[in-house]
Design goal:
The chain has 350 residues and is an alpha/beta fold. The chain has 18 helices and ten strands. The strands form two sheets. It has a seven-stranded mixed beta sheet with strand order 6-5-4-7-8-10-9, with helices on both faces. A three-stranded antiparallel beta sheet has the order 1-3-2. Helix 4 packs across helix 5. The chain starts with a helix and ends with a strand. It comes from Nocardiopsis alba.
């Protein structure tokens, strides 16, 4: 019996094909080549048409011969085309332009918060051995958040990425809850206020406050003024491991808890519960249970990043409820749409 035909009938994979598949999955060449081109902002120099490696090298300040080799490799991967000695972007490669409507540039640049942090994945094996975060191992014992605090450029790149992501998520979250039923919502770790602005547009009677670190708070204040909602919104500097500086009737944690291990997440929830007090509520937005079925690979990938960056994790509704219980809260309501879940907690005993 022919071995190839027999494997085809039984659904077995040819061992050589399996090994080749493993090689394709494990090779770092393509992702690192893409990230090099992103860091150099090469795609922005091709928006007006084809250029040679010599022209591109002069524009971005690198060796043109080496650049031609990287671009030549990425032609094979479908990011560029080549006509003679001139390179052009494909539709896939165009997503590395800064002005692309769905640009991925900021996620890949080695001088941005996300692309830089991804380098720690090379230390994942040692992180699993030691229990430390891979980020801390890679960057001399520092933490992601400490580096953002120390480097305004890194912080700005992170805020821009989060604002872009939150703008997409906000379109779902605004319809998941009766925001007009609240008087004063405090968005804890609310960044530049992107979500809060969307909620204020949806709920004209709502007042809102963003609590975050100094950099995001400054951006949020400017954004509220520019949006004409400064009479209903403000931004206050604070630390969610300390007593929260603002009293509201509801506290929102939107994709915050996944950045932290269980002990830290409980402490954040406890601070929100203390601030909310009797009659208050704590709202938590994370990826939902149903979303994991439809977007399992994406959520699983994010879970590994949370592990590597922070020793954090993605959690389902049950895990979030268990953490909330330790903080003196109980789940009273939840809703999910488009992979995003919103959970409402109130103090136990109410």
């Amino acid at each position: 019996m022919d071995g190839t035909n027999a494997r085809a009938r039984t659904g077995e994979v040819d061992p050589r094909e399996a090994a080749d598949r493993l090689w394709a999955l494990a090779s770092p060449v393509t992702p690192m080549a893409i990230r090099a081109i992103a860091t150099l902002r090469v795609a922005d120099h091709l928006k007006d048409g084809p250029r040679t490696a010599a022209e591109l090298g002069a524009s971005v300040g690198v060796d043109p011969e080496g650049l031609a080799r990287v671009l030549g490799y990425l032609v094979r991967e479908g990011l560029f085309t080549r006509d003679g000695d001139r390179f052009s972007l494909t539709e896939v490669g165009a997503a590395l332009r800064s002005d692309h409507p769905h640009s991925r540039l900021g996620w890949f640049t080695a001088d941005g918060a996300h692309g830089r942090a991804d380098l720690c994945l090379a230390d994942l094996a040692e992180a699993l051995r030691s229990g430390e975060s891979a980020y801390s191992l890679r960057f001399d014992g520092s933490t992601f958040w400490a580096d953002l605090s120390d480097d305004p450029a890194l912080s700005r790149s992170f805020d821009e990425l989060m604002a872009s992501r939150m703008a997409d998520l906000a379109r779902t979250l605004v319809g998941l809850y009766d925001w007009d039923a609240l008087e004063h919502l405090v968005d804890v770790g609310g960044g530049d206020g992107t979500l809060m602005r969307a909620l204020l547009r949806r709920a004209p009677r709502l007042r809102g406050t963003v609590v975050d670190l100094a950099g995001p708070v400054a951006l949020a204040g400017e954004a509220f003024r520019a949006a004409g909602v400064a009479d209903r919104a403000d931004a206050v500097e604070g630390d969610f491991f300390e007593p929260l500086p603002v009293h509201g009737d509801a506290y929102l944690l939107c994709w915050v808890l996944h950045d932290w291990d269980d002990d830290a997440a409980v402490e954040i929830l406890r601070r929100c519960a203390e601030a909310a007090g009797v009659g208050g509520r704590v709202l938590v937005a994370e990826y939902g249970d149903e979303g994991r079925k439809g977007r399992g690979n994406r959520v699983s990938e994010l879970d590994l990043r949370m592990l590597a960056y922070f020793n954090g994790r993605e959690r389902d509704t049950r895990a979030l409820s268990d953490l909330a219980s330790k903080a003196g809260l109980r789940l009273v309501w939840s809703e999910e749409e488009n992979g995003a879940a919103l959970l409402e907690f109130t103090p136990k005993g109410e």
